Amino acid sequence: MGYDIERFVGYVNEGLLCSICRDVLEDPLQAPCEHAFCTACIHGWLVHHSNCPEDRQVIDVSVLRPLYRYMKNDLNRLQLHCKNREYGCEMVCSLESIDRHERECEYSQIPCSNAGCTVQIERRNLDGHLAVCEYRSRECPNGCGYTILSAEDTQHNCVAELRTELELLRSEMICRVEEAKHEMESRLDSQRRHMVQKESVLQNEIEELKSQMSRVMSDVRSLMAAERQHRQELEQAELEKREL
């Protein structure tokens, strides 16, 4: 939708009006047939139609272009009242600068910044409202450190609040201790399993070494027996040699 033509001061050229909503162009686009539209208006029109609403020439979104520069300049120079005129703002400025003014206008209706408050108030009165808003928060004057809402003043009990926080901290500490305990037990179990596996591997290696040692000793005894047999045979051969 465009800008309400009733807000403008003086004459507005027909060529600066949207061909669909008939208000002053807002964020304008132009078709090849040179008819101009608000972006929102022509996009909405083309959802259900495929032609220009003025001369019925076939168009689609791809052929739409920005407004001619001279038309854009004429549009930006138009003078209009602030949208907050009904609230007391008397500002009249160019269309080019109206958005900037309205973002900062002291008569703009803005929401209260306090959580839970639904009041809409003029920007110029916001500070006064915040000073008395029932949803405003402040630090407890008794020194407990809690932030309280004005509506909760009569219900706030420092001792009860601190006791509740202490219980929460105690519960959190217990949970953390339990988590640390479980983690340590898990690590010890893992290390214990690793040590058992390592012990089993070492035991198998020891048994294998014992078996190898037994075989070596058996071979040594066999060699020693063979050596004694060989020595006896040599001695027998030496006796026979002497007898001969």
From TrEMBL:
The keyword Oxidoreductase does not apply. It comes from the Eukaryota. Residues 18-56 form the RING-type domain. Residues 192-243 form a coiled coil. Keywords: Coiled coil, Ligase, Metal-binding, Zinc, Zinc-finger. Residues 101-144 form the TRAF-type domain. Pfam families: zf-C3HC4_2, zf-TRAF. GO terms for biological process: regulation of canonical NF-kappaB signal transduction. A zinc finger (TRAF-type) spans 101-144. GO terms for molecular function: ligase activity; zinc ion binding. The keyword Zinc-finger applies. PANTHER family: RECEPTOR-ASSOCIATED FACTOR, PUTATIVE-RELATED, TNF RECEPTOR ASSOCIATED FACTOR. This is RNF41 ligase.
